[in-house]
Amino acid sequence: MKQKSGIGSFSKNFWTVIVMEFLERGAYYGVMSGLSVYLILFPENGGLGLSKEQAGAILGTIPPLLYFLPIVSGAIAERYGYRRVLFFAFTCMIFGYTFSGLSHSYFLVFISLVLMAFGAGFFKPVISGTIARSTNETNSGLGFGIFYWSINLGAFLFPLILVPYLKAISFSYVFYMAGIIGAILLIINLFIYKEPEKRASSRNLVQVFKDMLMVIKDWRFILMIFLYAGFWVLYFQMFGTVLWYVKDYVDMTPVNSAVNSFLGLFVQNPSWKFDVVHVTVINAGVIILLQLIVSNIVKKWAALPTMITGIGFGTLGMGILALSTSPWIFILGMVTFTLGEMTTHPKFISYIGLIAPADKKALYLGYSFLYGVIGSSIGGFLGSRLYVKYVDNLHQPATLWIILSCIGLFSMISLALYNRFIAKKMTAGK
Asked: What are the two backbone dihedrals, phi and then psi, of residue 272, each rounded to the nearest 5 degrees?
């Protein structure tokens, strides 16, 4: 009997986790879209009054946890059950987000956000695992496509619509919103989500660390991940230095006027205003609109050269910010950077599948997100220090973007050399 492959082929549990992913990513990106600015604003302006170095330490710790924890949490979920792990994850989110809103010191906010990161890190593999178990060979491509769209839709709608209104009252309300979403997710887990059919698995925590050691010994794989992570050092500036730059240097009045002129065709006296949280909206919105088009253009291109091309677009996008403080130049830079992200990352996933040993493809794909651990940790700490030195102290924002662009250029050149002297030999040896 032929299996269905369209929208109607998906189970209730599939759509349940799609809703859960949309809500969880909306809460996460809703917080992250303005967190770095909230951390450094003076208390009289509604912030915590932390230094940029302290904010950079938070930004250099939370995302790496989110990328690293699924290595361990996936094995725990397989052993103890998805619903139990989700219960733990949502409980951590509820308390982590809520206490972040209630906390007013560096230490308490740091610990609260770490708790939130544990929740998100345990959530990620369970949701992707449920998608995998709720689809088959005929509809898995469409299923994961819907899954990735739900991520970007949450990252787009929450900062665009909800966060600016809550932030206008107090940024603490953004944390409370995320905590309430955690509670909603907990209810969904208790009453709607169903434990997927368990598949045989021999992986436990001991095996996880054995696998980790084996992957780390593959120096070619680790080198490629490290070189590729240079692009993600740039990406994670979207949650730190880029937001500070917009707040300090970019006058969005022309954008506000243009948008309100357009909205005036439909409503009377519109008063839309660009907020720093809308920076991440640009990224998610461009992906929603153009990802399918870009993927179709590059689908037949070789993986590693396409990755290098994408990093080139990302590097160009970062370099464009050095040209002017014009809001239109800023938006052009963000759109160009996102085009680079859309070009390079799907091909990166494809490339891992090509170079991984035939019997260990799933394992290598699982560890491929180490790029995020490296990129976000370096990006958070390095970005904040560069901003303090070149923007706050020397008032040279262009220098900051040129330095960051050089990191992207290094990533491009080093991957080109990798392709020339290492990758081709690996392919030839297969």
From this structure: -65, 145
- Residue with structure tokens 């929450």? 158
CA distances from residue 359 to 201, 204, 213, 238, 355 in whole angstroms, order as listed: 15, 19, 17, 37, 11
Question: What are the structural domains, with CATH classification, of the chain?
Answer: 9-201 (1.20.1250.20), 218-430 (1.20.1250.20)
d(Cα 270, Cα 264) in Å, to the nearest integer? 6
pLDDT (tens digit, 9 = 90+) per residue, 100-158?
999 999 999 999 999 999 999 999 989 988 988 888 878 877 888 888 889 999 999 99
pTM beyond 0.70: the answer is yes
Retrieve residue 251's tokens.
């006058």
**Amino acid sitting at position 22:** F
Token pair 């070149």: residue: 390
174 neighbors 31 (Cβ within 8 angstroms): yes
N-term to C-term CA, the chain:
37
CB burial readout 418-430, b (16+ within 10 A) else e: bbeebbeeeeeee
The pLDDT tens digits for 331-362 are 999 999 999 999 998 888 888 877 887 777 76
How far, in Å, CA of 120 to CA of 64, rounded? Answer: 12
Task: Decide: 26 and 158 in contact? Cβ < 8 Å.
Answer: yes
pLDDT digits (tens, 9 = 90+) for 355-390: 887 777 767 877 888 999 999 999 999 999 999 999
Pairwise CA distance, residues 85 & 186, whole Å: 11
CA distance 188 to 321: 43
* Exposure of 288 in the CB half-sphere (CA atoms within 13 A): 15
**DSSP code at position 301:** S
What one-character-per-residue DSSP string does 83-125 give? Answer: HHHHHHHHHHHHHHHHHHHH--SHHHHHHHHHHHHHHHHHHHH
40 touches 49 (CB < 8 A): yes
